[in-house]
Design goal:
It is built from nine helices and seven strands; from the N terminus they run E-H-E-H-E-H-E-H-E-H-E-H-H-H-H-E. With 261 residues, the chain is α/β, with parallel strands linked by helices. It folds into two domains: 203 residues, NAD(P)-binding Rossmann-like Domain (Rossmann fold), CATH 3.40.50; 32 residues, no CATH class.
């Protein structure tokens, strides 16, 4: 049921981390994948070419660029079957430190892009009645707000609302909307930037691991490949009757304060 042969998938923020892992997995399962990123990485060129993955530069904060991206993706099979709104940025600042530019950067990248990406993908999912799957990358912060990054938390809480609202609106079109709520995930651009802000990188890493009970028990962060498995599931016919659902991959962080070892 996870055979995606003949299907077209678009993944934003797909040059690295979760997006890249998702792109590789969907391509390995037969999908024609179009990856979009603000800063494509040349190191992906050989592997992407081998798997038939198309890479495009795209500023997801601009509706015109998202429209061009979706129109390009639809040229392969005449439609789009899967959209993964994965592009995102983090920001650790309290409200008195947040500028209007900070607010716009986070909300435009994390929320506006998912809304307008969905808008222009929907035209290519509904024109012939076949439907599709739209997967939004939320966060553990989209379930429970976090004290250290209120603007980021707001953007991800809004992604959860967008997922449920559009899932209800477009169920008649056979388009499913679901969200994945990961964290803490290692090997991503966002996590690397977060850890780099601390003087002691090892201590910062261990603190992030320690905040999630399963991550603490296993002694590691979540991997992008683990999150990609949920992308595959939600994109596939195995999830044909699932919409408006949140899949939490956070090592149990949303359960509460982990027990002391």
């Amino acid at each position: 049921m996870t055979d995606l042969t003949g299907k077209t998938a678009v993944i934003t923020g797909g040059a690295s981390g979760i997006g890249r892992a998702g792109a590789l997995l969907l391509a390995e399962h037969g999908a024609k994948v179009v990856v979009a990123d603000f800063a494509p990485l040349a190191e992906n060129d050989e592997l992407f070419a081998k798997l038939g993955i198309e890479s495009r530069q795209c500023d997801v904060r601009r509706e015109t660029e998202l429209k061009k991206l979706m129109n390009f993706a639809a040229t392969f099979n005449g439609r789009i079957d899967i959209l993964v709104n994965n592009a995102g940025v983090g920001m650790v600042k309290q409200i008195d430190q947040v500028s209007e530019e900070d607010w716009d950067r986070v909300l435009d990248t994390n929320l506006k892009s998912a809304f307008f990406g969905s808008k222009h993908a929907l035209r290519h999912m509904t024109h012939d009645g076949h439907g599709g799957s739209i997967i939004n990358m939320a966060s553990n912060a989209g379930i429970l707000p976090r004290a250290q990054d209120p603007v980021y938390s707001i953007s991800k809480l809004a992604i959860v609302g967008l997922t449920r609202s559009l899932g209800l609106c477009h169920s008649k079109d056979k388009v499913r909307f679901n969200a994945i709520c990961p964290g803490p995930v290692g090997g991503t651009r966002m996590m690397d930037e977060t850890i780099a802000e601390f003087d002691d990188l090892d201590t910062a890493t261990q603190a992030l691991i320690g905040a999630s009970p399963l991550a603490r028990a296993l002694g590691r962060m979540i991997t992008p490949e683990e999150v990609a498995q949920s992308i595959l599931f939600l994109a596939s016919d195995a999830a044909a009757m699932i919409s408006g659902t949140l899949i939490t991959i956070d090592g149990g962080k949303a359960l509460g304060v982990p027990p002391q070892p």
